[in-house]
Amino acid sequence: MSLRETALEEIRSAIAVGDLGEDRIFSAAGLAKTLGMSLSPVREAMMSLVADGTVEAVPNRGYRLVPVTRADLDEILHLRLLLAAPAVQALCDARDPVLVRNLRTAADDAVVAAEAEDRKSFFAADRRFHFLILSRGLGERAASIGLRLRDQSRVAHDEEKPRQADRDSAAQLNRLIDLIEAGEAERAVDLVDDNLRYFLT
């Protein structure tokens, strides 16, 4: 993984868990210092997020998150489901054992991170899992669109219960793999629908 990709993953995770709030303006230099990285890859990562619509540039000041409302989250969820449902259907039809092993690795990483209350690692593993679902089910372009939508989401949990929500979401990933492996498409689609609602509960 390149330094730019590392910075991008760290910043995406920080956005998802709320470490970078919508009410803040932050500079690439400040983020670089926080991440312990040089300025160049962090600036490149921020420009990628601007291009994705997750962040907007504030002239002469830095960057801020593009605000996301509940209506935005509902729309994002609807679009993600339009991609995830046929992807899961295709995977249930294929029942590829190599893909199942790769999904298990990502799911197990998510479970370990959730149990350790390491939210950034949890989000990174969860992101890898959903990339595999979309890229193998529909193709790289669909995966890119789906992850861009995911990155525009925010976690909406109450502060008192996010850790349990992480554990519940991680546990769903292995159940989803079981259904894909068994070719139970209808139940798998229902479960991925529930899993994607993580960002709304």
From TrEMBL:
GO terms for molecular function: DNA binding; DNA-binding transcription factor activity. The keyword Transcription applies. This is Transcriptional regulator, GntR family. It comes from Brevibacterium jeotgali. Keywords: DNA-binding, Transcription, Transcription regulation. PROSITE patterns: HTH_GNTR. SMART domains: FCD (SM00895), HTH_GNTR (SM00345). Residues 1-68 form the HTH gntR-type domain. Gene3D superfamilies: GntR ligand-binding domain-like, Winged helix-like DNA-binding domain superfamily/Winged helix DNA-binding domain.
